[in-house]
Design brief:
The protein is mainly alpha-helical. It contains 4 helices and 4 strands; from the N terminus they run H-H-E-E-H-E-E-H. Helix 1 packs parallel to helix 4 and helix 2 packs antiparallel against helix 4. The radius of gyration is 19 Å and the shape is elongated. It holds the Pfam family Phage_tail_S.
Amino acid sequence: MNEFKPFDDRLAGLIAALSPVSRRRMAADIAKTLRTRQQRRIKTQKAPDGTPYAARKRQPVRAKKGRVKREMFAKLRTNRFMKASGRDDAAVVEFAGKVQRMVKVHQFGLKDRPNLHSEDVQYPERPLIGYNQKIKVLISDLILDRYQAY
């Protein structure tokens, strides 16, 4: 059984009662709220289930001098790369452009080459996009708030 089935059944009637324009606006609001939540969670370096991301691999001591490493995924979580859009039937949060390949490697823990001349590296799984029970409750609250406004 689909884990969203009870959730979908409860809210389907409310969503169906809204006009297509209202549904599109509601989906856009939900997508923006979800993007904000995902950005905050990525900033805290945690997976959707609350577990911390696997630490970065230690770099050699004699690496480049003066090099300051940013936190992981600092640029990825910006609105430039993390897009939110709403349609009549969906609220979508996705990564845009060429970063999708890198995000996929980290999301699923795949192998990739850091640069053209290096060996393949197995990356640990670091889920960037995900959901949990709090997100489901947030979405239902947003839908109920929108429905009560009309």
